Amino acid sequence: MKKTVFSLLIAGAMVLALTQTAEAKGNAQKSTTTLRVGVNPVPHGELLELIKDDLAAQGIDLKIVVFTDYVQPNAALLAGDLDANFFQHIPYLESSEEWKNGLSFLWGVHVEPYGLYSAKYKNAADIPNGATIAINNDPSNEGRALLLLQANGLITLDPASGLRATPLDITFNPKNLKFRELEAAQLPRSLPDVDAATINGNYALEAGLNPVRDSLFIEGAESPYVNGLVVKKGNEGDPRLEALKKVLLTQKVKDYIGNTYDGGVVAAF
Predict the structure, then answer these.
(1) Which pLDDT score is estimated for 267?
(2) Does 145 fall in a domain?
(3) Is the same domain home to 107 and 124?
(4) How high is the mean pLDDT in each 10-residue block of the chain (269 residues)?
(5) 129 CB-contact burial (10 Å; exposed 0-12 / middle 13-18 / buried 19+)
C-alpha cells in the first residue's frame, strides 16, 4: 500500500514537472513576436538579413518577404499582409494618392544612386542624335530619370515640372532623344535594345552593374531619393519598428553598406 502511494506521488510529481515545462515553453513562444517586412532583394533584403539575429535576441522574429517589383509591396502593406515595407523613397510613395493617404514614411536608411547605363557607349558624349533612352514608367522615377539627364546636359526641363517631370516637360532636346518608358525591373534587360537606360540602383546591382564603375553618370550625394521604412498609417508607434530602427541604423550596417556595394548604395544615417 505504501509502495503504491509512493508510486502515485512520484507519478504526480512527474506530471507536474512536465506540465510546468510545457507551460514554460508556451510562455517562451508567446514572448516571441513576428514582424513581417516586404522588401526588394538588393540591398533591402540583404540589409535586413544582416540584423535578423539582432532582432531575434529581443524576441522579434523578422519575416522578410521579397518582392521583385515596386507596386506589390505597397498593396500588401495596405491589405494588412505586412507590418512594414522597405524599398521606396518619399517621391515614389507620394506618386499615388492611395499610398500617400494610407501609408507613412518613418525614417530613411540609404540612397541607391540612380544612373545612366549603356551597352553601346562608354561616354555620354558619344550618345548620337536620335538615340533612344529607356526610362522608368512610374511617375516619381520617370521624373528622377529626366532630372538626371538634365543635370548632365542632355535635355532641359520646364522648371515648373519639379520631381514629377515627364517627356512632355522637355523644353530643349538638342540631340532629339527618344524615350521608351518601361517598368523599373525591365530597364537592365533593355540595354541591348536601346542606346542607354536610366536604372535604379537596386536593379543595377541585381543585374551585376556597379553604379560607380559602370554608369555613364550617376546622381550626386544631394539626391532626395532616400529609401526607408514605410508603415500603414496608425501604426507609426509600433514598438517592434522602434526595435528595428535601433538595430538597422547602426555602425554595423553602415560599415556593411560601405564594404559591400562599392558606392552603389550610400548610407543616409
Answers:
(1) 94
(2) yes
(3) no
(4) 44 45 43 91 97 98 96 97 97 95 97 95 97 95 95 96 94 98 96 97 92 91 86 98 98 97 91
(5) exposed
Q: Note the pLDDT of residue 222.
A: 67
Report CA Rg, the chain: 25
Together in a domain, 169 and 233: no
How many domains is the chain partitioned into structurally? 2
pLDDT (0 to 100) of residue 31: 52
CA distance 109 to 199: 20
Question: What one-character-per-residue DSSP string does 21-57 give?
Answer: HHHHHHHHHHT-EEEEEEE-IIIIIHHHHHHHHHHHT
Q: Is 96 a domain residue?
A: yes
- pTM for the predicted model, two decimal places: 0.78
The CATH number assigned to the domain holding 126 equals 3.40.190.10
Say if residue 29 is exposed, middle or buried (CB neighbours under 10 Å; 0-12, 13-18, 19+).
exposed
Cell for 80?
494588412
Residue 15, in any domain of the structure: no
- Separation CA 238–CA 78 (nearest Å): 16
Domain region containing 97: 31-112+225-267
Q: Is residue 21 a part of any domain in this protein?
A: no
Whether omega for the bond prior to residue 43 falls within 30 degrees of 0, making it cis, is yes
Partners of 228 in the β-ladder: 88, 108
Whether 236 and 104 map to the same domain: the answer is: yes
Q: What span, in angstroms and rounded, lies between the C-alpha atoms of 52 and 229?
A: 15
